[in-house]
Amino acid sequence: MKQFLLMTLVSLVFIACSSDKKPATESKEATVKSMTTAPVDERDKKTEELKKAPQLTLEQMRLLLPQELDSAKEKNYLASTQFGYGLASVEYPKSKSRSIKVTLYDCAGESGSVNYFENYWNHLNVQNQTESEFMKTIDFEGEKAVQTYKKDMNLSTLTFVIRGRLVIMMEGKNISPEELESAAKKLHAKIA
Q1: Contact, 185 vs 69, CB < 8 A?
Q2: Predicted confidence band of residue 38 (pLDDT cuts 50, 70, 90)
Q3: Which residues contact 14 (CB under 8 A, 6 or more apart)?
Q4: CA distance 173 to 27
Q5: Which residues pair with 149 in a beta bridge?
Q6: How many structural domains does the chain have?
Q7: Which residues make beta-bridge pairs with 133?
Q8: Mapping DSSP to helix (H, G, I), strand (E, B) and coil, where does residue 77 land?
Q9: This prediction's pTM
């Protein structure tokens, strides 16, 4: 429960901080965003589409996440709609030191559309690589996904969208990016 509250608070901080930018920062960010995101009309169209979509219920979100993934049984399932968007999270421990955590965001509604851009859209077409980590956009099941890896922590993440509105964020502790992508394909097949 503490992890869920922490994750929710972090999301709210990101949303709050994104609305309180200084003008000098805005011009720099506008330049970067114009190079890394789709045209504004696409963004506006997607925003309106998400705002009009009905939010999933807790029961519907529960049915989307499997009880077993990549030979690991679920643990610590949490779900909420209290912040204006649906959120469901579950862990799949593979061993004491290896696990996959899946967080599903239903990005329907006003708050959901903000979440869609914060967790997925704004990270597309960004590439960053150092000796110890990387972040890149990859092709995944016919769409785009954001893949990250932190070598010193052996932490992989993969963020992708299903059904045009469900942002899936997978995090693999002591899981390689390739192994996490393989598990993500299995999850995608079950939800899509």
Answers
A1: no
A2: low
A3: 118
A4: 37
A5: 134, 156
A6: 1
A7: 150
A8: strand
A9: 0.76
CA angle 170-97-192, nearest 5°?
20
26's tokens: 């805005």
Residue 188, class by beta-carbon neighbours within 10 Å (0-12 exposed, 13-18 middle, 19+ buried)? Answer: middle
CA distance 169 to 109: 19
What are the pLDDT digits (tens) for 154-165?
Answer: 999 999 999 999
For residue 102, what are the domain limits? 2-191
Nearest to 168 by CA among 68, 90, 93: 90
Q: For 71-77, what is the mean pLDDT?
A: 95
Q: Measured between alpha carbons, how far is 188 from 177 in angstroms, rounded to an integer?
A: 16
Other Cβ atoms less than 10 A from the Cβ of 107: the count is 29
Q: Are the C-beta atoms of 179 and 173 separated by less than 8 Å?
A: no
CA distance 96 to 86: 29
Q: Which helix (H) or strand (E) holds 178?
A: helix 177-191
